[in-house]
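Hey, quick one: can you model this chain's 3D structure?
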Amino acid sequence: MSVEIHPAAFVEPGAQLGVDVVVEPGAVIGPHVTIGDRTRIGSHALVTGWTRIGSDCQLHHGAVAGSPPQDLKYAGQVSYLEIGNHTVIREFATLTLSTEPGATTRVGSHVLLMAYSHIAHNCQVGDHCILANAVQMAGYVTVDDWAILGGATLVHQFARIGRHAMVGGGSRLSQDASPFVKTAGSPPRNAGINRIGLERRGISTAVIDALDRCYRLLFREGLTVDTAVARMRAEFPGIPEVEHWARFAETSARGLTR
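Sure thing. Here's the predicted structure for all 258 residues.
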């Protein structure tokens, strides 16, 4: 078992570091932090609060994980930040604890958070997501698996980004971005399904065609959400991706980006 801690780093007593963890100069690790095997903490990074980081992660120079939420309701109580395995957090990205006692801000595995991106309190980011430079997320945002957010995108609190969604850079999302769909702009507009992304992830042509039909039902035929969802289920029973999209649409609290 080996842990490599640079003499110019500061690791507080109580921090738990796994096998082959590397801590570069100037990094600071707080007493309630747990870091998994083979994770590297870059120079002048700060890992604080009640933060748990998985294995094989990389936090680059100046990244901050586990700082208090930017929420005036927070009173210093114990809340958490969890980061999965094989996740890369680039320079000066910031990730905060949750606001409520015992609640958790989560970032999944195989995620890329590019420089200056911000994960606010109580956000939930799934696996295999990419957030490009300076993506700014307000509190309680949910980003489902495989979603991609282009640089400098702003996301309103409580908004949801569906799985396999592709959001163009510079967008301003105040409503939910549907799964499997491309959207961009300020205000944002949909631009069809993310066909190339779905093909790259091994989704069959039959399922992609079904999703394309669902897109037209939801956004191009002038139907209410309830009517469109009923048609989706009637036309494509037994397709999990269609059912997932139908459920996403009918549970949208902020409304769907169109």
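One thing worth noting: The chain has a mean pLDDT of 98.
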